[in-house]
TrEMBL record:
Residues 5-349 form the Sulfatase N-terminal domain. Transmembrane segments: none annotated. It comes from the Bacteria. This is Sulfatase-like hydrolase/transferase. Residues 464-483 are annotated as: Disordered.
Length: 483
């Protein structure tokens, strides 16, 4: 039985799981994450419930996959009505604090279940990026793509300034507020926005990489048919529009140095937060989880940002350390942020809420150090392109189901870079059918796709129709709160 302890959850935004020292990257400096991994367990097959911010965070809050949380895209966010792990804990007398990005609706009077919210970052104006409701393949998001490169380089952005405030508030909370909550274990959720673009990295971190040779992204120089072999991917690449703005290797290098710099900037804040935990004298009574909402393609196949089911985008970093967590251990069992939600409840002594909320997730505390489990991780995307995409990751394979298009199948043991799609190989027909059946046992892709499109259509009507929405600016990123 899990012994109840305090829990510190640190979430970054858009952290490619491969860009960390503990993950084998020989370029990036992440000493604090590396130490956390060394004293705990890393989950090497952890995935986002959706490779885009708002749906991923809605699933994390509710512990439910996207087709149940109904947070379909960046304009349909969590509104507090569905039960959440935070509300379940608060109802049981636990103090549950959040500091930083939430990406919920953010309307006055909405109760998300936290005991306190410090510096909350919600979707813009309570509506988010309404242009993402439009699944028009001809709608090219040129402005955001242009800004990604234009803003890459040394300096401070509103995001780096916001993260400094979030990290400072977390340190203060651990030193001053944590000692006051001793009746039951508390949860502190610290949510930063780095290394999400803009790729403007503070100079002390940017110049750690600007003068170094950085590895060129996978398939960067390949023709489009090789880079993006599936029609859905070519459609997404066309809409996201990043590749054509890079005119030289210098452009690419500047963007990569910006991202690497932001990862180190984020890692530096992780170190400060963990140092505050230790200085408060509560490390031995507190477990720590580090994760991200989704990854970043980071130039692989010419793509930036998220929204694909490739490992760079759909897989996430996930570390857990502290009392009763095996040290220097890797867990290969597939998990998602829905499992993290269940873990939070279990870790502080509220495992009964997992059943009460009918959560599909399983506590990481039960999986860490245990033999690999035949468990499937589910991710899904319902924006950008006309039809939905569903991903199922098992211990060895990844199955990607495109509604209305051919599937993809990868053997991640033999082909970790996902360069060889096995879906069309007759030798793998039985495996392909078995994985599709496993997905359909969890949900019906066509029905869920239709439900998402219907919900988006209602929102389009609510916001004045397709023509009016199509005239709005395509948001590059959500502005942080001021003041």
């Amino acid at each position: 039985m899990t012994k109840a302890r305090n829990l510190l959850v640190i979430m970054s935004d858009e952290h490619n799981p491969k860009i960390a020292g503990y993950a084998g990257d020989t370029v990036v400096a992440t000493p604090h994450l590396d130490r956390l991994a060394a004293r705990g367990t890393r989950f090497d097959a952890a995935y986002t419930p959706s490779p885009i911010c708002v749906p991923a965070r809605g699933a994390f809050a509710t512990g439910q996959p996207v087709h149940r949380s109904r947070c379909w895209d960046n304009a349909i966010a969590y509104d507090g009505r569905m039960p959440s792990w935070h509300k379940a804990l608060r109802d049981r007398g636990h103090h549950v604090a959040s500091i930083g990005k939430l990406h919920f609706e953010g309307h006055p009077g909405q109760d998300y279940g936290f005991s306190e919210m410090i510096l909350p970052m919600q979707i813009t104006n309570g509506t988010g990026d309404v242009t993402m409701l439009l699944r028009d393949p001809t709608d090219v998001r040129e402005a955001g793509a242009r800004k990604l490169l234009a803003q890459s380089g040394p300096g401070e952005s509103e995001y780096s300034i916001y993260d400094r405030r979030v990290a400072a508030a977390a340190q203060t909370w651990l030193r001053e507020s944590a000692p006051r909550h001793t009746d039951k274990p508390w949860v502190l959720f610290v949510s930063m926005v780095s290394p999400h673009f803009p790729l403007t990295a503070p100079p002390e971190h940017y110049y750690r990489y600007a003068d170094r040779d950085l590895p060129k992204p996978k398939l960067w120089d390949a023709p489009v048919e090789e880079r993006l072999p599936h029609p859905w991917l070519r459609g997404y690449g066309h809409r996201s529009d990043h590749y054509r703005h890079f005119r030289s290797d210098d452009d690419l290098h500047r963007a990569l140095a910006g991202y690497y710099g932001l990862v180190s900037f984020m890692d530096d804040h992780v170190g400060k937060i963990l140092a505050a935990l230790e200085a408060a004298g509560i490390t031995d009574d507190t477990r720590v989880i580090y994760t991200s909402d989704h990854g970043d393609n980071l130039g692989s196949r010419g793509l930036w940002g998220k929204c694909t089911m490739y490992e760079e985008s759909a897989r996430i970093p996930l570390l857990m350390a502290g009392p009763d967590v095996p040290a220097a251990t890797a867990c290969p069992t597939p998990v998602t942020l829905c499992d993290v939600a269940a873990t939070i409840l279990d870790a502080v002594g509220a495992a009964d809420a997992i059943t009460e909320l009918a959560l599909p997730g399983e506590s990481l505390l039960a999986l860490a150090g245990a033999p690999p489990k035949d468990k499937a991780a589910l991710s899904q995307l319902h924006t950008y392109c006309p039809n939905g995409v569903f991903m199922l990751r098992t211990l060895r394979h990844k199955y990607i189901h495109y509604v209305g298009a051919a599937p993809q199948l990868f053997d991640l043991e033999a082909d970790p870079e996902e360069l060889h799609d096995l879906a069309g190989d007759p030798a793998h027909a039985a495996l392909l059918a078995a994985l599709e059946a496993r997905l359909r046992a969890m949900l019906d892709p066509e029905t869920v796709d239709a439900e998402a499109i219907a919900a988006q259509s209602r929102k389009i009507d609510e916001y004045g129709g397709t023509e009016r929405i199509s005239q709005k600016e395509r948001m590059a990123y959500t502005p942080p709160p001021v003041g």
